[in-house]
Design brief:
Layout: H1 2-31, H2 38-55, H3 60-88, H4 97-120, E1 134-137, E2 140-143, H5 144-166, H6 168-178, H7 180-185, H8 190-215, H9 223-237, H10 242-262, H11 270-282
Antiparallel strand pairs: 1-2
Helix pairs in contact: 1-5, 1-6, 1-8, 1-9, 1-10, 2-3, 2-4, 2-8, 2-9, 3-4, 3-8, 5-6, 5-8, 6-8, 9-10, 9-11
């Protein structure tokens, strides 16, 4: 019974991690930015959905859409307030911009975290599920929302694949991830591609955050662990590799689920971080990394 419970719960949480990590990886692949405010954006989206349901008295569906919208706004705020000014600054040396951006996104994430705590306290908040009820599968009673979560995550990932591979704008994004300079030589504006990527990232992080709020609940304390999990996934899978991130998301998701059930939920992130250290020592590029 416990085996099937871990299998089902792990699949749902891994799908959430895969969705969030895909956006994280896409941002790095195109613009070289490691966004350390990732967890704060997910939490901000989830808390916005929770607050919309409680304060605006809207249904679960509209509240979820509001949460996703806030995720997109936070992603754009991250880009315009912390990333773009440094990328365009003539006062910061090119060799130092990466560490400046890392630091600025980390500080921005802390600011969002503290704002959430100030407005809505540190208490855990659970977003009202869109799908109610319980499903019995493999002898395990599982909330229907878990299956809904996994289906939405993989549906969105599938739509992202279609966007990248079947549309002109998506192909431009793919080309920019391979050779940004080559894209500019073809007459495409990198700034517009960056805006597209950050919009897509905001959607992915917002959807993942709202679904996580429905599945496990979130609080301002979730920011650090969520960022750590995303960072572990993209480094394990290989920086810039979307397929690697998808595989790594399931490795990390099931490691965390096993730890939560067999040891304690308080230690769920430790095994994945230890695995990250091992991978960085044995294969610094990750499983499928290009750089």
């Amino acid at each position: 019974m416990l085996f099937w419970q871990i299998l089902l719960d792990g699949f749902a949480i891994s799908a959430l991690y895969a969705l969030g990590a895909t956006g994280f990886t896409l941002i790095f692949g195109v613009s070289g930015v490691l966004n350390l405010s990732h967890g704060a954006i997910m939490v901000g989206a989830a808390v916005a959905a929770w607050a919309a349901a409680g304060e605006l008295h809207v249904g679960a569906g509209p509240a979820a859409l509001i949460g996703v919208g806030v995720g997109v706004l936070l992603a754009f705020a991250t880009y315009f307030f912390t990333v773009r000014p440094i990328q365009r600054s003539a006062k910061v040396a090119e060799t130092e911009k990466e560490i400046f951006i890392l630091t600025s996104t980390l500080l921005w994430g802390i600011m969002v975290q503290e704002l959430v705590a100030y407005l809505y306290t540190n208490n855990a908040k659970t977003v009202e599920p869109i799908v109610q009820g319980v499903v019995t599968m493999l002898g395990v009673r599982t909330p229907a929302n878990e299956f809904f979560t996994a289906a939405v995550c993989w549906g969105v990932i599938g739509l992202l694949w279609l966007l990248v591979n079947k549309t002109r704008r998506g192909k431009a994004v793919l080309a920019a991830s391979m050779n940004p300079r080559g894209v500019t030589l073809l007459g495409m504006e990198l700034s517009s591609i960056y805006l597209t990527v950050w919009a897509v990232y905001g959607l992915l992080a917002g959807i993942a955050g709202v679904l996580l709020g429905m599945f496990l609940g979130v609080s301002s304390y979730s920011v650090g662990p969520l960022t750590a999990s995303a960072f572990s996934i993209v480094v394990l899978g290989g920086l810039g590799s979307v397929s690697g991130s998808l595989i790594a998301a399931y490795v990390v998701g099931y490691l965390e689920t096993l730890t939560a059930y067999l040891v304690s939920p308080a230690y769920r992130t430790i095994p994945s971080l230890l695995l990250l250290v091992l991978v960085m020592y044995l294969r610094p590029r990750g499983l499928f990394g290009r750089r």
